[in-house]
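Q&A log
Question type: sequence-to-structure
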Amino acid sequence: MTAGFVVAAIAMLVCLVPAGVVLARGEAAEAVIGYEFITGVVVMVFALLAEGFGRPSLFEFPVLLALLLYGGGLVFVRALERWL
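Response status: OK
Response body:
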């Protein structure tokens, strides 16, 4: 286990708190930005944890998650486009 990668993942998880507040309480455009930020950070956290625990086979999950969350973000924007 490489402690530096795990510490970096924990530090990035702390960054999700303000983005979650913006997502929950912000306007529609701010919520979209918060969602996109959270998805990017979550993908990086999973990649850092896979490297930190020395499991290269777990790198498939963040890559797949990045592709799926990008599509989810497009659906989210499409649903909110009348308010943007």
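Response note: The chain has a mean pLDDT of 87.
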